[in-house]
Amino acid sequence: MTINNCNDIEQTLLPSEDIFVKNDINTDKIKFSQLLQEVRNLLKNGGSKTIETIDALQKLCISHHFQNEIDSILKTLYTKMSNVHHIIHDNSLYDVSCHFHILRQEGYYVPAGVFAKFKQNNGKFKGEIAQDVKGLMALYEASQLSIEGERILEEAADFCSHILKEKIMFLDQEEALMVKYTLEHSYQRTVSTFMVQNYIKHYMGTAMSELAMFELAKVQSLHRVEVDQISSWWNELGLVQEFKLARNQPLHWYLWPMAGLTDPSFSELRVQLTKPIALVFMIDDIFDVYGTLEELILFTEAVKRWDNNIVELLPYNLRISIQALYEVTREISDKIYKKYGYNPKEFLKQSWANLCETFLVEAKWFSSGHMPTKEDYLKNGIVSSGAHVVIVHMFFLLGCGISNESANVIINNQGITSCVATILRLWDDLGSAKDVNQDGHDGSYVTYYMNENRGCSIHSAREHVMGMITKTWKQLNKECLSPNQFSATFKKACLNLARMIPIMYNYDENHSLPLIEDYINSMF
Questions:
Q1: How far lies 170's CA from each of 132, 166, 203, in Å?
Q2: Which one, of 91, 41, 39, lies nearest residue 65 by Cα?
Q3: Which domains does the chain have, with CATH numbers?
Q4: Angle, vertex CA 134, rays to CA 132 and CA 138, nearest 5
């Protein structure tokens, strides 16, 4: 999975909104503009197909071209829906599900009670909707945006899943594939770019699919350039030579911001965000594989105090890793200051100090043979996942913290951050037994859960953890609903990071990550 040399990857980068084949650049630009206008006309015309069009644009990863139009449409629609039951009274299962899904996804709260009309007096879903495959897929998608306590959406997920699995063998090939994609990769919990080629096939022949093909070619070319930049930076840093057993996976690390920050205009942000991600993995490996406990205590003090005098007391390999951390933090802080007029360095430094403190707690547990409770392990492990560090950096890179008051939002309102971190920690622990070939000392929530529940099988423990992940997703769905203090761009980026987690940690029986391989092939 590691790419150390990207010279074999084609590097083609033309100006901003327009990356096309050089020989036909003018023709392609004109065609691209025409397609943009065709889709804008579709949105402008309104009507019953408007929500369906927005859904398609999002699945095809081209909605950013029309975000102003989409925001206006949804705001108007939500305002009209003050009397929700009146608005949806005559609408089909598909229409109601799409409205619910799109509005909730964009932060608008629509009550789950809108689906009550599709249930019988006995509380079961009406038999006739079992024949509506398109409606069932839409209802299943809607159910993935549930929050805690919405029993009707839990029932909808089970009902749709059961019926659709039964029907797959009786559907034509294309429809069966769409059902399979929906059940395995619901939009709310899947990185949209991972599925875009499948959706292009589904919408083939439309202006939207043509536009998506142009966009995909542009984005692929841009990502190749970004991967090359990251690989060059990582190799020049010199840490690979000093830490032979540490993970050396620049492409793997880049996939996180690639999935999180999908807008092509975020190219520099993706490159910058990959750097702290790389250092999270490197420092994790230092604590797991390299440093003695005494060295790790010094290492943590050097990060907490940001003090070169302490750094000088460390061995050379640990010394240069901290110097790299100092340099990356200074570089990112300076870039943010130049762009937004606010320097977040103290916030970034604190995020690294918090991370190293949790790494040190785990190192002390291992050194003393202490077996923490599952609650203590998870509380510490949520921070040691590294998600907090990454999200704090992303927050400032996106320009969300441009004053002391706005900067404190990310510290004082950690609901979204903690949800993403919890999902990451639990998924990581599900796959930790099959992780990369290291003789490290990682703990696992599964292990501690089984230790406290004698007689519990590994299967039962993993089922329990999957239930915790589902519950956390419901909390994340709630945290992303308006009103809250975060921008739509930041919320979407956090959701995308959460969506990427199963791809990153879904090991197969061969200790490999086939979903990542598929993802890389689809994007490169």
A1: 13, 8, 22
A2: 39
A3: 23-211 (1.50.10.130), 238-523 (1.10.600.10)
A4: 115
What pTM does this model have? 0.91
In angstroms and rounded to an integer, the radius of gyration of the C-alpha atoms of the chain is 24
Q: How far apart are CA 494 and CA 484, in angstroms?
A: 14
In order along its 524 residues, the chain shows pLDDT tens digits of: 333 333 332 233 333 334 444 446 678 889 999 999 999 999 988 777 899 999 999 999 999 999 999 999 999 989 887 655 545 556 899 999 999 999 999 999 999 999 999 999 999 999 999 999 999 999 999 999 999 999 999 999 999 999 999 999 999 998 999 999 999 999 999 988 888 988 998 899 999 999 999 999 999 999 999 999 999 999 999 999 899 888 999 999 999 999 999 999 999 999 999 999 999 999 999 999 999 999 999 999 999 999 999 999 999 999 999 999 999 999 999 999 999 999 999 999 999 999 999 999 999 999 999 999 999 999 999 999 999 999 999 999 999 999 999 999 999 999 999 999 999 999 999 875 444 444 445 679 999 999 999 999 999 999 999 999 999 999 999 999 989 999 999 999 999 999 999 988 877 766 677 778 877 877 77
CA atoms within 13 A on the CB side of 395: 27
The amino acid at residue 168 is: I
Residues contacting 15, CB < 8 A, separation 6+: none
Residue type, 202: H
Distance CA(101)–CA(110), nearest Å, equals 9
